[in-house]
Amino acid sequence: MFDFMMTPEQKALQQETREFVKTIPKQLLVDMDQDKVQYPRQYIEDLAARNLLGLRFPKEFGGRGLDWSTEIIALEEVGVLGTSLGCLFSLPSIIGEAINKFGTQSQKEKYLTKITSGELTVAEGLTEPRGGSDFFGSTTKATKEGDHYIIRGQKRFVVGAEGADLFLIYARTDETVPAHKGISAFLVERGPGVKADYIYGLMGTRGGGAGRLIFDDVKVPAENIVGEENGATAIFYQMMIPERMTSAAGALGMGRAALEVATRYSDRRKAFGQQIRKFEAVSFKVADSITKLDAARSLVYSAAQAVDQGAPSETARRMVSEAKKFATDSAWEIVNHAMQIMGGIGYTDVYPIEKLLRDIRLIMIWTGTNEIMDLIIQHEYYKELLGAKENVPRDVEHDAVNADAVEEKIYE
Amino acid sequence: MKRRLLEEEHRIFQTAVRSFLDKEAVPYFDQWEEERMVPREFWIKLGKQGYLCPQAAEQYGGIGADFIYNVIINEEFARVGLGLMGVGLHNDIIAPYLETYGSTEQKEHWLPKCISGESILAIAMTEPGAGSDLQAIKTTAFRDGDSYILNGQKTFISNGICSDLVLVACKTDPKAQPAYKGISLMLVERDTPGFTRGRKMDKMGMHSQDTAELFFEDCRVPAENLIGEEGKGFYYMMNSLPRERLVTAITSQVAAEEMLRETLEYTGIRKAFGRPLKDQQHIQFTLAELKSEIVLGRTFVDRVIEAYLAGEDMGTESSIAKWWVTEMANRVAYQCLQLHGGYGYMEEYPIARWYRDIRVTPIYAGSNEIMKTIIARTL
Ligand SMILES: Cc1cc2nc3c(=O)[nH]c(=O)nc-3n(C[C@H](O)[C@H](O)[C@H](O)COP(=O)(O)OP(=O)(O)OC[C@H]3O[C@@H](n4cnc5c(N)ncnc54)[C@H](O)[C@@H]3O)c2cc1C
Ligand SMILES: Cc1cc2nc3c(=O)[nH]c(=O)nc-3n(C[C@H](O)[C@H](O)[C@H](O)COP(=O)(O)OP(=O)(O)OC[C@H]3O[C@@H](n4cnc5c(N)ncnc54)[C@H](O)[C@@H]3O)c2cc1C
């Protein structure tokens, strides 16, 4: 959100988050990027100590009862730390959503409270080796046996696999029906049969525990099912909102951070006897970047408002998907511009741009690729437009000179 | 369409280079990336194969080959990885200074070693305070008896650590007006007192290419190491840089072709929603667009190569090729990585490396903005 739109409380949250972000030692970022730190648990505990986790959830479960329009302020601020720390900040907000919206009172007491307090760190496993975009193609299975389920399968590319205590896992509970009617969501605690491997040599987003999860006949109490049995489709659709809102708002922080570094650099660096900002090749890249950042921030804010104001869930889903796509695409372009503005030095580790550019390449892929965003956006928009009945605007189709030449309007 | 540039004998050479690299480079390349250096033994093997400075005259041990052979070497090496760009730099960017502007004694002294791989070359133009604006360099070389005394600092020097012979751009007359008239080129040998190397720089990509800072502190260089005439350095560089731009376009073009090849393979195998990715129209169209851009790039690059072979002036065209192809290759990298989904973000898939490596091409060898200033000047 823009500063001038913030309420005093929102400004205070921005300041509070900024203060926290400044306490993160640079060494942590470096060690994570070098995979020396594979899961910065202390960071999550520090966030919790300041009551910054799960901001949207009710106070009784340790949140602050804020809305999305406010949470995105904190997300943008933490976003400047890069994808790993941004994601670890977001995960309680994501997994908490499932518990808060679909969980039982006792799940909320047992889990949500401990997630916001930092006692339980969390991760989410949707993606499988054969199915990322194709969520319903997933093959992890949960078989009911008395008062518990036995989970068997594999999840891939899970941020926090290494290190998290609690996983939100989707698994097939009924294979006799179409997938969207036969998947359930479970809260799985780390324990016997849960194996995490920190195996990926990632281009960026390191040190956030991204790894592979293997569930080898893991026994999960039946009460750990979230929502209805075979009812995970509703959860999956709801989860698109926190997953994508957090990616989108975090992207704003990364773009902003790179733009600030590059803009300052262009004010200091000289070539041909003048500051390089005097060259329009440079200053117009800055102009393009800040325009994109503002446009992205506007869309992220509007999407947050759509959810907060209770817009129809299709509209909210479309706008959040648009925000995710546009904010991540824009942020990438901004970081990419930043690298060009910096010249050769930007490619080295003397400035953080090369790390940001490695980090940011992920965000057009995770929490649903931007192509999957297009899939959703068009789907919802068709539905919305073709189904519109009330308060319909002027149909300009009839304004053409030969608009009434029906014999020319052939559709098949 | 058949590639017209290559005749039968060129294709034979191409196959030979490729199979040599398949044996001698491909299996070790990941290790070199890890070690952030291409080993010296590899250079010696290249020398034995005749892949170093093949253009050099026979009297120095070269084979007097046509530039087309250098093109093939650049292409095949780039195919393995852009981290091998040091070889093209040695062959096509630095050695030609010695060949074109060096004296017979200088050539006799150094060229044979450049051809055998004993002497690896680097060129040091860029300084912390002067990259695009070469005239603003501050490194000086003052005459003192039969030597020059060099003082200054260079940065981002490719082959910076492994090089034995560095062609240094410096000012023999820092007061010259205009400034470029005071620039000269000097060869500095490894172990010359006063010449030290700084740290190997950590970069986003091009890991096997050792990029370093170089320092000259009262570094005494024999006067006979001056290339050509004093004060003519800038002129020599302006004459030579088009070739550097062309080589950058050539290697970036190959990178784009390789990335597409890998992605075609991947999208043919990987399935989502029950069918190969390649069956989705969005993916087909993305691939179709990339293919189109790549073919356009190839056509133009080959045309510039032809012009260069024919001795035509290609100063502007090499700049056009450099900026357009490097940007095109970056678009290709972005899309190809995207089409790999989460796997593209993992280093075990080559697309991750290509993506990191290709990002420098719009920056080095003259930034793309500088290319546009060159083109604009001719309009
Ligand atoms: C570092 C990292 C962290 C991650 N963290 C998590 C996590 O914490 N939890 C989790 O569950 N997942 C996580 N993911 C997984 C991520 O969400 C998936 O990688 C992503 O959803 C894409 O799935 P995929 O990799 O299987 O790609 P694929 O589904 O194989 O897609 C490959 C390409 O095809 C395109 N494509 C697919 N279908 C279509 C179509 N119908 N039309 C057009 N184009 C299409 C995609 O957009 C993409 O470009 C993470 C991934 C990475 C790399
Ligand atoms: C991996 C790597 C290897 C390299 N290898 C070598 C090497 O072997 N030898 C060597 O000498 N150098 C080498 N370089 C240096 C490289 O050539 C320079 O980085 C490049 O020329 C840009 O100079 P700079 O970094 O000083 O950027 P600057 O000149 O400071 O430029 C900063 C920004 O301003 C823009 N700009 C500058 N002037 C203008 C203008 N007039 N109009 C519009 N925009 C302008 C630039 O395009 C850039 O975006 C290498 C660099 C890298 C990263």
Major sheet description of chain A? 4 strands, mixed
Coarse shape of chain B: globular
Which structural class should the secondary elements of chain A be placed in?
A: alpha+beta
**SS element count, helices of chain A:** 11
Query: Helix proportion of residues of chain B, in percent?
Result: 40-55%
> What percent strand of chain B?
15-25%
What is the name of the CATH architecture of the largest domain in chain B? Up-down Bundle
Tell me the β content of chain A.
5-15%
CATH architecture of the largest domain in chain A: Up-down Bundle
What is the number of beta strands of chain B? Answer: 10
What small molecules accompany the polymer chains?
A: flavin-adenine dinucleotide
Overall pLDDT of chain A, averaged?
A: 97
pLDDT < 50 stretches of chain B: none
Keywords:
heterodimer; A: 412 residues; alpha+beta; Butyryl-Coa Dehydrogenase, subunit A, domain 1; Butyryl-CoA Dehydrogenase, subunit A, domain 2; Butyryl-CoA Dehydrogenase, subunit A, domain 3; 3 domains; 4-stranded mixed sheet; 4-stranded antiparallel sheet; 11 helices; B: 379 residues; 50% helix; binds flavin-adenine dinucleotide
What does this protein structure show overall?
- The complex is a heterodimer of chains A (412) and B (379).
- Chain A is of the alpha+beta class and 412 residues long.
- Chain A folds into 3 domains: 3-121, Orthogonal Bundle (Butyryl-Coa Dehydrogenase, subunit A, domain 1), CATH 1.10.540.10; 124-230, Butyryl-CoA Dehydrogenase, subunit A, domain 2, CATH 2.40.110; 233-386, Butyryl-CoA Dehydrogenase, subunit A, domain 3.
- Chain A has helices spanning 8-23, 26-33, 41-49, 68-79, 83-102, 105-116, 232-268, 280-308, 313-342, 353-360, 370-387; strands spanning 122-125, 141-145, 148-158, 166-172, 183-189, 194-197, 211-221, 225-226, 270-271, 274-275.
- The longest helix of chain A has 37 residues, at 232-268.
- The radius of gyration of chain A is 23 Å and the shape is globular.
- Chain A starts with 7 loop residues before the first helix and ends in a 25-residue tail after the last helix.
- The model of chain A has no long low-confidence stretch (mean pLDDT 97).
- Chain B starts with 7 loop residues before the first helix and ends with a helix.
- Chain B contains 11 helices and 10 strands.
- At the A-B interface, strand 9, helix 10 and helix 11 of A face strand 9, helix 10 and helix 11 of B.
- The complex binds flavin-adenine dinucleotide (2 copies).
- One flavin-adenine dinucleotide sits between chains B (123-126, 131-132, 156-158, 203, 206, 211, 360, 363-364, 366-367, 369-370, 373) and A (269, 271-272, 276, 279, 281-282, 340-341, 343-345, 347).
